[in-house]
Design goal:
- The protein is of the alpha+beta class.
- It has five helices and twelve strands.
- It has one domain: Nucleoside Triphosphate Pyrophosphohydrolase (Alpha-Beta Complex).
- The strands form three sheets. Strands 1, 2, 5, 6, 7 and 8 form a six-stranded mixed β-sheet that branches. A three-stranded antiparallel β-sheet has the order 4-3-9, with no helix packed on it.
- The longest helix has 18 residues.
- The radius of gyration is 16 Å and the shape is globular.
Length: 214
């Protein structure tokens, strides 16, 4: 991924996000072969969720903020995720949801970031959420602190570190420890696996960035 300046990166990504997106075609790259096909339509009663894709420059690389969720027994506990969560009635928009959740989970100062667009929504059947990825940028590394109740740790890998580490791994269901399958993943250091919905969202980002920068 080659760009001249951070402003150039932001400008080109913002423009690309304003037009038609690759959507499920890009998302399903991170699905097991047996699950590839047509996208699953969101249920009529699906809950709405906003997650934040926060990008910032450091040492000539573009970095991303991820979290490892605490093991709370939920469907997505212990997984690597983007900061985010359920849209509440007091949220004026899905943008407000993503920023509020990032503030609650990693103490992000929303005034220090700028929203530049969105990726395609993704329906997660196991939890009945339709997830809307919001893309934001910061001019430098943000000061973050994880919520003791929701976040086991904060990860800030470079995008190149993520996208150069595609692999296949055995992943287990949180709701049934006996259930597992092989799936495409992004493999980070310390055997940290990014898979499932988060990997599908990042896959669309990867496809877009390769399209405009490679």
């Amino acid at each position: 991924m080659t760009f001249s300046t951070w402003n150039d990166f932001v400008h080109r990504l913002r423009e690309r996000l304003s037009i038609s997106l690759p959507g499920f075609t890009a998302q399903q790259r991170m699905l097991p072969e047996s699950r590839k096909g047509d996208p699953v339509e969101a249920a009529a009663d699906a809950r709405q969720s906003g997650v934040l894709i926060l990008l910032y420059p450091e040492n000539g690389q573009v970095h991303l903020v991820l979290i490892e969720r605490t093991n709370d027994g939920g469907a997505h506990s212990g997984q690597i995720a983007l900061p985010g969560g359920k849209k509440e009635t007091f949220d004026n928009s899905i943008y407000d949801t993503a920023l509020r959740e990032a503030r609650e989970e990693v103490s992000l100062d929303s005034a220090a970031v700028e929203i530049i667009g969105r990726l395609s929504p993704l329906y997660i059947r196991v939890s009945n959420f339709e997830v809307h990825p919001v893309v934001a940028i910061a001019t430098g590394r943000p000061e973050l602190e994880g919520s003791a109740f929701e976040v086991a740790r904060i990860l800030e890998p470079a995008l190149s570190e993520i996208f150069d580490a595609q692999s296949e791994a055995k992943v287990y269901s949180n709701t049934n420890p006996q259930l597992f399958w092989k799936a495409p993943v992004y493999m980070l250091p310390e055997e940290t696996i990014v898979w499932g919905a988060t990997a599908m969202i990042l896959s669309e980002l990867e496809v877009i960035l390769k399209e405009i920068f490679d």
